[in-house]
Amino acid sequence: MKIRIIAAGGKMPAWVQEGYAEYAKRLPRELALEMVEIPLGQRGQKSSPALVDRARQKEGEAILAALGPRDHVVALDVKGKPWSTEQLSQQLQGWQMQGESVSLLIGGPDGLSADCLARARQRWSLSPLTLPHPLVRVVLAEQIYRAWTLLAGHPYHK
Q1: d(CA 55, CA 32)
Q2: β-pairing, 32-38 with 2-8?
Q3: Residues 95-140: pLDDT tens digits?
Q4: How many domains does the chain contain in total?
Q5: Burial 62-86, CB ≥16 within 10 A → b, else e
Q6: Integer distance in angstroms from the first to the last C-alpha of the chain?
Q7: What's the predicted TM-score (pTM) here?
Q8: Is 107 within 8 Å of 130 (Cβ atoms)?
Q9: Which domain holds residue 130?
Q10: CA 29, CA 127: separation in Å to the nearest integer?
Q11: CATH code of the domain in which 27 resides
């Protein structure tokens, strides 16, 4: 099974790349984690709402283009359902049993487009806190690793 994180934004600091890579390499080959970066749409610090909407729409189109037709899509969304690590582990087990690739979507600074949210089978909230996008990548990779350790009976979770 492959899990792809499709994230708007690029040029992450070294600590983000290193943190993500550390957890991705710990996963077994049969649970490959892959990062797909989508360029951010153009916006400025004082962008009009219309410009922000266009940027979010452009990011959404690129995210949707990166999806496979049969991917199980999970949108990371502040309005989504929060999962405990144990619940994520159960989700992971279910995804493995379905045998489909899973794509986890991380939007840009203004969130995911309506089309991305509509394509998602599930919406997951990592936290009610506002997290910086670079940190989300590391937390997401660590939590997927932690969920796998629960399924594998590995002592990391304790």
Answers
A1: 30
A2: parallel
A3: 999 988 999 999 998 899 999 999 999 999 999 988 888 999 999 9
A4: 1
A5: bbbeebeeebbbbbbbeebeebeee
A6: 25
A7: 0.92
A8: no
A9: 2-157
A10: 29
A11: 3.40.1280.10
